[in-house]
Amino acid sequence: CVQPLVLAFEQAITELNQLxxxxxxxxxxxxxxxxxxxxxxxxxxxxxxxxxRKSINGGxxxxxxxxxxxxxxxxxxxSTQASNLRFLVELDEKSYPLFMLDSGQSGxxxxxxxxxxxxxxxKGEYIEVVTLSLIHI
Length: 137
Hints:
7 strands; two-stranded antiparallel ribbon; alpha+beta; three-stranded antiparallel β-sheet; about 140 residues
């Protein structure tokens, strides 16, 4: 039972050494894993670099910052599935909801809002949603 565990550990250490070098202080997940934000059908064309975005992704299927990857080839840990909306609500009359998208509010690559939330999403920042109170008559 122990032998397969030791072998798996040795293989993992070998791959990490190949990816990052032997200094384990420099082993960081975001250097090998990113969340791919495709814009289909353009992500499957030579125009890919204009339309597609990549973002640092720190999660997996079992974390709050959910993300998962599909091993297409060796050392390809690009996330193919992840949450794109974060929405926080505190059930308090004095609090405003917070939200964040993983890219931006526009699907138009020429808009300044195409990917204007990308870096804020990576940092875990949020935008406050200010709502108007309903007037009861």
